[in-house]
Amino acid sequence: MQTQLNQAIEKTCQILIGKQQQVKLALTCLLADGHLLIEDLPGMGKTTLSHTLARVLGLNYSRIQFTSDLLPADILGISIFDNKDQSFQFHPGPIFNQLVLADEINRASPKTQSALLEAMEEGQVSIDGETRPLPSPFFVIGTQNPIHQSGTYPLPESQLDRFLMRIQLGYPDLEAEKKMLISQINNSDDSIQAVMTIEQFQQATKLAKQVHASDPVLDYILRLVTFSRESQKFANPLSPRASKAILAAARAWAYLSNRDYLIPEDVQAILPAVAEHRLRSASSDFSLEGSLSQLLLESIDPIAA
Predict the structure, then answer these.
(1) Cα-based angle 54, 58, 62 (whole degrees, multiple of 5)
(2) How far apart are CA 128 and CA 92, in angstroms?
(3) What is the spatial distance between Cα 291 and Cα 298, in angstroms, rounded to a whole number?
(4) pLDDT given at position 289
(5) Strand partners, 179
(6) Among 44-58, 144-158, 272-286, which is the least confidently predicted range?
(7) Residue 69 domain-assigned?
(8) How far is CA 8 from CA 19, 62, 205, 274, in A?
(9) Nearest to 143 by CA among 95, 103, 106
């Protein structure tokens, strides 16, 4: 299984050149059975990463382009009356796929954004009074532009909390961008194929959940979470759901690192991606991007773990 996962990272990095850390974090999120939010400027590779992950993992894929006039029915599906059968026939929407890309999710209205809530939390949708299960596995990868850009609606806290992790891609370095241009000239991304079956991927997610977490590492996680609640530095501290998310992501990261036990470095590696979008500073003077989770890490000594 480790061989296939390493191949998935390698093949994805052939497309998203120079972003191995972000690729590993994205795969960690899926292995932890969570949804991923990718936030960055347009043209950074958010959609490319999502599509490539679906291809290498062999997942059914659909893309929903979120716009201001998108309706919940455009996502979930709709029942249409069939004159031949004299009955309503349900036509499923693009949400009924294993990996769904919600592209530029913050350009849709809050009503449309909320249509994803039940799907992301329960793995099902309720339409016309009937509950319909979604495929298994089921993942949502949402992409969003920075909220300062025009035409965006900030995601509410309840929606953000449904995403296990949030990552940013950033600009590639010059060498990586040159390799990207050469790759485009040679059209080398057409050869990307699945490296594992859906059954193998589901087995990997089960094994990731079995990674051993010792009491000292669990105490380290709890000290981080407790500090966010008691230090009065955070207007929105970490919730119990965030605690579970940290543990799940750390286990998946350890499994990708070919270990069956957790160490504090696993927690530190995934904490910014898990915690940053959940935290809010209590001080208007504290506005450095990406520094809230770093404040947590610097405030809590992992030596006891």
Answers:
(1) 45
(2) 12
(3) 10
(4) 47
(5) none
(6) 144-158
(7) yes
(8) 13, 19, 14, 22
(9) 103
Enumerate the H helices of the chain as residue ranges.
2-15, 20-31, 46-57, 72-76, 110-113, 117-122, 157-160, 174-186, 198-209, 215-230, 240-256, 264-275, 292-299
pTM of the shown model: 0.90
The answer on 227 and 173 residing in a single domain is no
Same domain, 170 and 255: no
What is d(CA 14, CA 52) in angstroms, rounded to the nearest whole number? 10
Q: Is 107 exposed, middle or buried (0-12, 13-18, 19+ CB in 10 A)?
A: buried
Output the CA–CA distances (angstroms, integers) from residue 276 to 18, 115, 199, 266, 291, in the order listed.
Answer: 23, 24, 32, 16, 8
Q: To 10 degrees, the CA torsion angle through 276, 277, 283, 287?
A: 70
- Per the structure block, which two tokens stand in for 188? 């080398």
Residue type, 48: T
CA atoms within 13 A on the CB side of 240: 0
**Residue 24 and residue 14 in contact, taking contact as beta carbons nearer than 8 Å:** no
* Angstrom distances, CA of residue 7 to CA of 21, 25, 205: 15, 15, 16
Is 203 within a domain? no
**Count of H helices and E strands in the chain?**
13, 11
Counting the structural domains of the chain, the total is: 2
| Beta carbons of 298 and 290 less than 8 angstroms apart | no
Contact in structure between 128 and 118 (CB atoms under 8 Å): no
For residue 180, CA distances in Å to 104, 184, 186, 224 come to: 23, 6, 10, 39
Domain annotation covers residue 17: yes
pLDDT (0 to 100) of residue 190: 56
* pLDDT at residue number 288: 46
List all residues 6 or more positions away from 150 whose beta carbon is below 8 Å from its beta carbon: none
Q: Which domain, by its residues, includes 293?
A: 210-304
